[in-house]
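Write out a record, fold above all:
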Amino acid sequence: MTEFDKLVRDRIPDIVRENDETPVTHVADGAEYRERLREKLCEEADEFRESGDPEELADVLEVLAAIRDAEDVERAELKRLREEKADERGRFDDGVVLERVE
């Protein structure tokens, strides 16, 4: 038996069954679902940081889309907020590293 206690993609229980194993699951909803999505975002971001694998980056995007839906944030609103912040503070295009402020 292996313990996971984490949010997984919808088809993972089917894949586990195909491997002649028995998944024990429950469906998270409401506040639990939103919290587990936040945890999943950190997990996927860490995996991308460690590997640099584009598949991990795709996982990050999938989790972000689920968070956007769960939080009822419209795509256009998110884009507006992103652009607003870029206008105020810039982007990350130049690779600026703030070492300290004296």
